[in-house]
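Consider this one:
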Amino acid sequence: MPMEPAVPLPQDPSKEEGPRSLSTAPTLEEALFLLAETARGLVRAHQATVTVGADASRPHGMFATSLSKAYQAWGGYSVPPPGSSMPPPRTEKTRLRLEHGGREPLPSWEARPAPSRGWLSVPLQGATGTLQVFDAESGKDFTPEDEAALNSLVDLAGMALEAVRLREERAALRKKLHQSEERFQALVRASKQVVWTADAQGAITRLCTTWGDFTGQEHAQYAGWGWMSAIHPEDQARVADVVRRTALMGGNYECEYRLRRSDGSYFSTLARGVPLLNEDGTAREWVGINTRLSPARNGEGELERLLREEQAARTLAEAAEQRAAFLSEASRVLTSSSLDPKATLDALAWLTVPTMADWCFVDVVDDSGIVQRMSVAHAEAGAEALAREARDFPPGAPGSNHPTTRVVRSAESVLVDDVSDAWLRKVSVSERHYEVMRAVGFHCIMSVPLLARGRSLGALTFLAVRPSRRYTQADLVTAQDLARRAALLLDNAILYREARKSVLLRDEFLSIASHELKTPLTPLQLRLQSLRRETQKGTPSIPTATVASQLEVVQRQVTKLSALVNGLLDVSRISSGRLTLDREPMDLAELARDVVSRFSLPANQAGCPVTLHARDDMRGSWDRLRVDQVVTNLLTNALKYGAGKPVHLSLSGDEAHVRIVVEDSGIGIAPEHLSRIFERFGRAVSERHYGGLGLGLYITRQIVESHGGEVHVHSTPGQGSRFEVVLPR
């Protein structure tokens, strides 16, 4: 069955037109269709299906399928007709969910035998779902490259699908809020009570139909403070004083006064109002009712209950919409940023202040495994000095109670909604740390780990200073969702940095390797050319001394070339896990004497005489060839950097271990390079001044660790180095 051309991967969403972009798809269903279409074209499959599991908003889950034209014609499937609930078919290719067209149903994924030919499945990032492709008719098996391409596509599509989901949630929340407003207005119209709304100071800014109907005032008459004119003149001053005091002190509003009817008569009423609060605890507006002062108040109490419940529902809907909008903006910041994690996490920290926190800390695990504070954001204008101190404060040691360090190490979230002085004392790592936390003055803390690929990359920490801010389980879920997005960005930046490092390391190695492999070939070629010229002179015989001297150089260069090639082969074995040991009983002192004997000529040429000191009983069970390689590499390193000074080799041990120590008095190693010299291609000096592939110490460490031993180095620049190898007998 012929295949269609591959569908190109979507580019920058801002350049897409209409719903053809994943990130701008109007619905999650359309986005899933586009993902299935892209996946099918990317790996040249006849069918791609995206399945998303059920959740609270979609109890039955979702799926979308894309079929090639050839597969559609072969299977007899058709797209839904125009006007159905599904989007209309595209004129270019059929990409939407297909209905059965008269043949047997498509085999379900569960019914397919495993493993099946031409079938591939990858999980969706951050969701319970899968992306599956198959091409049963052509019998084509998908390759590892296809699987890698689909994984990359899923990574790229993850945040786009999340953005579409958030837009759907926001639209649903706006609809819910609008319906809540309609219910509130209907409740007001159905009530016999006088219902009103006012701003924080007590002025009426919205239409209050029941107030106008009862008092006979038009909206222009009761708007602002005009409603006071409907109150009995003797009560107006007292009512105004109660309104001012309530607006200043906070709390519920309650006041009795005489209110004028539309017929001009007055009746005694009790006005009650409750505030709707801003995030800082101040009143945003008031909602209240006026009731008659009479014994029969059951109906009025029921109305007040309904009003309170409606107010609570509206508050929850508004909070949910704010969280969805915040996560959507955070996703935009993370996806539109560069691969510089410092700049992006700084922007993310400041985005959370003051929307989600009064202070925000971002802590990240560096390459050495130490928790470092990368960003500090705060809502207080005059807190720069305190923020600098909080940023520079050292993290707690492993096992300490330092909050963020504990979250990073345990990969578990922490939520403390009532921070006490005793708690601060418990988690502080020093007296100054306690003082800094007291100075910040937070009463709630929420810290969540940055998790990616099963490992903890750091933590996001949010502090609440304002009394009105309290963290709940809903806030914790939002923080964890935000941390998941930030961790994905951080992990991508780490992978990008490691990839660039690997490329640079590879290029550097190829340059050094080509130079090092050419170095012995040049004198080898010259010596062979010299011997050839001698044979072409027609001389009956070539002097033995001439041939011997030339062959000695040839042998030396061949040995050097062989060592370089063997080093590369050892690296290949180590990388693929094929470094094996052939243990046998042996005498380490005897092996060391053989190695020192082989180094007599190179040591004299380098001006670095080698001395050997070995104690008795140096026997054990090791791989003779590999231990010889360890001693050889250490002596080679000492002669290269020994600066023409003596080199000492000593052997010692106890009943369980032996110790090999090689000391030189050469150039030494700078402290910042000590951790690199045992890495593959690791160097502490420039390759322009010292040759070699940078593999000797790396291979040495691998051999020693394969024997269950350890290797250490102690060095002072300008005074030499001391390498110690400990091997179990």
About this structure: The domain at 174-324 is CATH 3.30.450.20 (Beta-Lactamase). The radius of gyration is 39 Å.
